[in-house]
């Protein structure tokens, strides 16, 4: 039997190995293979909706990725993947990504999938309820537990659920045998266990005891139906004595009368009659049962109900719109931000930790923890606490092949002031240690599970590869291109001399903006006419003898500037004079001087020269890399990708 088992495992490993070996290799860079799956991942990620797999698109991106891979290969040849600082950065990213990825994939996404499936159904149930709030005393909680256990025993002995429900603390349902009507997921935070019982208990069956944030429940599921979802309706509401009017209005509506006009004229619902009786979109448990039943019974938009009686009066209901169920992708986006704040998240996370524990070699040493607890004094609740350990290397917990000592836990406890210092000395030390121990083991169990993520999730592996190669590429490019361009002054000067024709100041114009500070328009026109023919020095000498009637600001613009949309680019060109209300002055612009095109010095053009020099060095570097690491593209594999 053992031999057969070993042979089976060997066979599976061989099959897996063959499958791995047969994955298509799209390109070889040096001695490194780029598989089809790797290329598809990065191509689709970076091109988004433009990833059409056309020959042009694939060729362009393959060329980019080839250069990327050449630089990565060079970085590895430079042994940059062994530099401690870079490896610490990568390890930090891996831990951060793995922690969030594990929770997203194993907790958040699973909860949302579960919730999406549950929203397909409404569940009708009855319950027996015993009140015990979360902040109730221990005596109250014990008494409540005893009471609900007694109900459970009576049910096991054949007592009627409906009769026992009459003794329930929920007085709104006790008179109806505990009937709560239909509910649908998601239930509010603090009621996840009740929601689980609703959807996991068969129709006609009774659950075990359920604890929620308000107390204890035993439920009986009485029906399940396809979820009604959400609906929009309009209504005309009449008083209870107006059945005849309701009938006549229905008759009129079915013969072409305008619903909006009748609602405005007859409906006594002041919150909706002004807008034609339109109500906000709603789901189950929003209105009176009769009103909801009649609304959801309408088969298509525009259908009108018979008069429906509720405690509020008579209603004539028109279906406006039946809201379509969200796709899973839309639902996921809506719920992603909400689910992590719900109590179900903590429960699901705890369940994940327990699942990992059961699937690994998880061993605890409670005697080691107890010895640690006994040595604690009142300093434990302060920042000055220093752990006292008689045997620091004693193993506290083992997870798989990893052993964690009491010393490691003590360090964790010392740093975790959030838990340790939130209690004063009146809180038993053992309870605080238990809370810290739970947080510590949860962290370590999740850390252990994170190591398996690359095998379980190909996209996690791809993300890590992408980040690692990105770090290596950045560092290799910095050393071989960016730093060289900035530090190689001789090379930069030589490059500038060879390409100096590319760096010059374009032809520019010195523009004077005139402001004439007067309310006398004729004086302003006189100054404007004079300035058209004379330069600023003469204008200043003539009109600013006693006070500065005329002021200027000087600017320089090149030919392409928007400044010249209304001003000709020509010597002495001038705009028309106009009055500026804010400045309380007449203004105009004049081209005072044309500055011809001239060569930029290296100092003036340095930023542009460095950027161009970097491009030059990079192209030269890539050409050298192509010789050092030959690239071979497997055309037959590329052709398979082309659409």
Q: How is the quaternary structure best described?
A: single chain
Largest sheet: number of strands, sense, barrel closure: 4 strands, antiparallel
Residue fraction in strands? 15-25%
What's the number of helices? Answer: 24
What's the count of strands?
Answer: 19
Low-confidence stretches: 1-21
- Tell me, rounded to a whole number, the average pLDDT: 90
How big is the Rg? 39 Å
Major sheet strand order? 4-3-6-5
Shape: extended
How many domains comprise the coordinates? 5
Separation of termini? Answer: 51 Å
* Fraction of residues in H or I helices: 40-55%
Q: Determine the structural class based on helices, strands and strand pairing.
A: alpha+beta
Keywords:
single chain; 643 residues; alpha+beta; Chitinase A, domain 3; 5 domains; 4-stranded antiparallel β-sheet; 24 helices; 19 strands; extended; disordered N terminus
Describe what this molecule looks like in 3D.
51% of the residues lie in helices and 17% in strands. The model is unreliable at 1-21 (pLDDT under 50). The protein has a four-stranded antiparallel sheet. Strands 15-14-17-16 form a four-stranded antiparallel sheet. A three-stranded antiparallel sheet has the order 2-1-19. Strand 11 and strand 12 (402-405) form a beta hairpin. It is an alpha+beta fold and 643 residues long. The protein folds into five domains: 25-77 and 471-499 and 604-643, no CATH class; 120-226, Chitinase A, domain 3 (Roll), CATH 3.10.50; 231-322, Chitinase A, domain 3 (Roll), CATH 3.10.50; 360-453, no CATH class; 504-599, no CATH class. Helix 4 (84-118) packs across helix 13 and helix 4 crosses helix 17.
């Amino acid at each position: 039997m053992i031999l057969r088992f070993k042979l089976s495992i060997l066979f599976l490993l061989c099959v897996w190995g063959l499958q791995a070996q047969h994955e298509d290799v799209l390109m070889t860079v040096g001695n490194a293979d780029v598989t089809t799956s790797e290329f598809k991942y990065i191509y689709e990620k970076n091109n988004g909706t433009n990833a059409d797999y056309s020959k042009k698109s694939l060729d362009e991106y393959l060329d980019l990725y080839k250069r990327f891979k050449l630089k990565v290969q060079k970085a590895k040849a430079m042994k940059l993947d062994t530099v401690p600082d870079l490896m610490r950065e990568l390890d930090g990213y891996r831990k951060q990504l793995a922690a969030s990825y594990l929770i997203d994939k194993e907790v958040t996404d699973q909860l949302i999938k579960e919730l999406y499936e549950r929203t397909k159904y409404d569940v009708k149930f009855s319950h027996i309820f015993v009140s015990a709030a979360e902040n109730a005393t221990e005596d109250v909680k014990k008494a409540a537990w005893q009471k609900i256990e007694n109900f459970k025993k009576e049910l096991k002995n054949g007592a009627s659920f409906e009769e026992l429900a009459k003794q329930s603390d929920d007085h709104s349902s006790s008179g109806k045998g505990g009937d709560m009507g239909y509910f649908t997921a998601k239930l509010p935070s603090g009621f996840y266990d009740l929601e689980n019982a609703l959807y996991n208990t068969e129709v006609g069956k009774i659950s075990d005891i359920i604890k929620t944030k308000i107390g204890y429940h035993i439920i009986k599921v009485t029906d399940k139906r396809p979820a009604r979802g959400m609906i929009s309706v309009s209504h005309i509401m009449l008083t209870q004595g107006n059945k005849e009017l309701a009938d006549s209005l229905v008759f009129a509506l079915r013969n072409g009368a305008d619903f909006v006009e009748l609602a405005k004229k007859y409906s006594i619902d002041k919150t909706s009659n002004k807008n034609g009786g339109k109500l906000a979109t709603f789901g189950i448990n929003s209105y009176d049962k009769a009103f909801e039943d009649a609304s959801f019974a309408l088969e298509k938009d525009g259908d009108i109900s018979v008069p429906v009686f509720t405690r509020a009066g008579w209603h004539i209901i028109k279906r406006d719109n039946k809201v379509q169920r969200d796709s899973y992708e839309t639902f996921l986006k809506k719920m992603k931000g909400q689910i992590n704040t719900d109590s179900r998240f903590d429960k699901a996370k705890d369940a994940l930790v327990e699942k990992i524990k059961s699937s690994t070699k998880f061993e605890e040493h409670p005697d080691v923890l107890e010895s640690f607890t006994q040595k604690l004094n009142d300093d434990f609740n302060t920042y000055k606490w220093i752990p006292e350990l008689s045997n620091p290397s004693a193993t506290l917990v083992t997870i798989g092949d990893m052993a964690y000592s009491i010393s490691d836990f003590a360090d964790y406890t010392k740093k975790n002031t959030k838990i340790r210092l939130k209690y004063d000395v009146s809180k038993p030390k053992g309870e605080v240690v238990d809370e810290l121990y739970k947080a510590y083991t949860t962290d370590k169990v999740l850390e252990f599970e994170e190591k398996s993520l690359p095998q379980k999730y190909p996209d996690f592996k791809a993300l890590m590869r992408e980040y690692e190669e990105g770090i290596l590429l950045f560092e290799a490019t910095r050393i071989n291109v960016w730093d060289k361009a900035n530090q190689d002054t001789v090379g930069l000067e030589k490059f500038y001399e060879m390409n100096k024709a590319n760096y010059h100041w374009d032809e520019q114009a010195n523009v004077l903006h005139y402001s004439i500070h007067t309310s006398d328009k004729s004086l302003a026109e006189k100054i404007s006419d004079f300035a058209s023919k004379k330069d600023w020095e003469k204008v200043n000498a003539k009109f600013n003898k006693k006070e500065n009637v005329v002021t200027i600001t000087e600017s320089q613009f090149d030919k392409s500037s928007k400044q010249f949309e209304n001003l000709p680019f020509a010597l002495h060109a001038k705009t028309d004079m106009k009055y500026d209300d804010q400045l309380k002055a007449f203004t105009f612009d004049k081209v005072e001087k044309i500055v011809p095109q001239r060569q930029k010095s290296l100092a003036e053009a340095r930023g542009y020269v460095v950027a161009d020099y970097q491009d030059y060095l990079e192209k030269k570097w890539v050409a050298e890399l192509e010789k050092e690491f030959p690239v071979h593209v497997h055309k037959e594999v590329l052709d398979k990708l082309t659409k």
